[in-house]
Design goal:
Blueprint (H helix, E strand, L loop, with lengths): L54 H4 L1 H10 L113 H17 L11 E7 L10 E2 L2 E2 L8 E6 L3 E9 L2 E2 L2 E2 L2 E8 L3 E8 L6 E6 L4 E5 L7 E7 L2 E8 L12 E9 L3 H9 L3 H10 L8 H9 L9 H14 L5 H11 L7 E2 L7 E2 L9 H13 L17 E4 L2 E2 L10 E2 L6 H13 L1 H7 E3 L4 E8 L2 E8 L1 E4 L9 E2 L13 E2 L1 H12 L21 H9 L3 E5 L10 H9 L4 E4 L4 E2 L7 E2 L8 E8 L4 E5 L7 E3 L1 H6 L3 E5 L2
Parallel strand pairs: 1-5, 4-8, 18-25
Antiparallel strand pairs: 2-3, 5-14, 6-7, 8-13, 9-12, 9-14, 10-11, 10-13, 15-16, 17-23, 19-24, 20-21, 21-22, 26-33, 27-30, 27-33, 28-29, 30-31, 31-32
Amino acid sequence: MLEFNLDGDLFTGFDASNAYQRVAGGDPSAYGLSQQNNGQAGSASDPLSAQDPISALADDDQNQQAATLKPHRPALWNQGTPSQHHTSQPAGVAADPSQADQGSDRQQDNSDPAQIDQLTGGHQDGRAIASAQQPASAERLELDPAHPADLNTAPPQLDPLTGDTEDASFGFIPLPSVFEIDPDFLSYLGERAEVNNLLAEDRFDRDQSTGTETHYNFTWGSGFSANEGSDYDVTDSFNNAADIGTVAYRDDQQVIGTVGYSSGRTRDYNDFFSFHAGKAGNFDLSLTGLSANVGLALYDEAGSLVTWSNKSGTQNENISTFLNEGHYTSRIYSYNSSAWNNNGATAFNLNISRQADCFEQLTNDLIDDNSVKNATLNSIKFDNKFSRNDIIGILKSAGDYGSVTGTELTDLREFWNTFNCTMRADLSVLSEKVLFHDDSNAWYTGYDSIRDDLGDLEAGSSTQDLNLLIGKHMLGTDRPMIHSDVEGNVVGTYTQAAGSLEIDGFDASDIDQGATGSCYFLSALAGTANDKPELIEDMFTDNGDGTYSVRVYTNGKVDYVTVDSMMATSATGRYIYANSGSDGGNQNIVADDNELWVALAEKAYAQVNESGRISQNGRNSYAGINGGNSATAITHITGLSATSEAVNLSGFGGVSEAELISYVNGNRVVTVRGFNGLATGSGSGPTNISSGVQSHAYSIVGYDDTTQRFDIRNPWDNQHLSLTHAQLRQLGADIRYSLS
């Protein structure tokens, strides 16, 4: 006969003749809830009290001994499944084979009928096991675009006859080797490896196996009660209940064990098992396989009785009750008048499960594909909210067999149509772009500034294309093109930026324009930071992993794009494009501790340009946002309507002095553009400046009643202006401002 401890490990050092035996019968009259029927002299306690009725275990010395014993016995409790230890069931214990822990692949709802050919690794119906099913390599794929030779990692070739290397003078013709690799192709591979490596991270894993986790609590072969030593059992008291883990929908916890056996005058009267209810709902506790009369009780974390079941004879005990999220303890209790024999002892099978709530039942009915269903149900196992990691995990679940099937695509779209209203706003918009249509889906640029074809997700799309769409919209890996020199060579590379989103809030002085003509956008950004900083704060959602969801308004709708903190960097390690200001216009070193919000906002504007919804040239590039209308940019940033008017002294056909003062002091977002090739310093008269400043956009951030001058900020972070209304009119200024 086989004996197991709480880890399910087989005992080998005991006399099989002393192994426990299931004992039929038992006097039902010896059971019950009354104290006089407990058969324990000197322990007149309520049998449904959470405290152990055995007086010996109530002794402080015993409890102290228990506290010191448990840490030194790590093998006495098992959190694993039977398959992790031994496949045989002990004699006399009938375990339901349908409750075995299930494997983790596409069929995650435990209903996969497909059998795997142990020789070929393929299903009998001809489907090949996808590479995702194979054990993952311990090393990530790293490709350095700057060193294409890194891809040629073949060892030196040896002559099988002479042992000479390929440099030897005779007897060897070397195998072909790679001497040159197209750097564009290398970058192509690297971009795909980048996305695949990100999606392989555990935080996006929603394909965990589900099913019943089985634990063991058997009698020792020496005749002692289950795992008892020095009159102490790890399951004999409420305070030392064995923790069997979390119970959630489709994640049952099962204990196979024995109770009621005795050794000398010591009887195993109680087995306590604690568990965590992962989410509020209806929970079922069942006690089956009984050969004697025992009871089942349930207590809350404080030890108060919740409910119990105590049927006569060997009937199964059942509890069904609503539980809030939290910790609970189940108790199997056995009373017998005699401590000298095993009458009343029994094997048992305790199963604790949670019923599906309406949210989970809707998912069951809505989604057909098992991989998508499993990922969705795992995402709401502990709450009814879909986090960013949940949604990414659900999206990537459709690529488990190398491509997206029609059923998987339909299920993903049904999932979005049903649950998008429960998602965070940015996640709803971004996942919609992955699953449906967006003009930007046609291409993927990545980090090499080379535009590759991609396309909308459709039935038959490869797993790689699915991953690229997820990377593009959810992970921020599709970065804008960096500009090229006259020979077409990309000037710069992407580098991880250091710093934080903001330092001491959002301010117009944070802005410093870089090497693209985005003054219209940056002046609108500065004006918004000056007058409506709360809109800038709301513009960014920190995803906690170096990426940000950035909100813009396009075509009258709220739109989002994901950007990461990789920034276009020059050969000297400095920002090429917009960066943090207040330093007179210097381009900061990317690796320094900088304020990132300006660079992130400009990068997001370049990325969303590819959607074709911001009236630019529709390319995911910094060059694509070169030149534009600051009134339009105000609307893109704030969602507010904006207009443009010339400066006029009287207000007829333009903005009067009084109106402009009211706009500036009234917290409108105000920019100014024009100047006819002229500008002015702090003096009273205009001076000629270079033609490169013509049609430059500035933000008006204040008005001085004493000097009657407007404070005009240059997005270059230098050459700021102070002008009167008359000077603005003389210079042909064009005022662009929000209507509220």
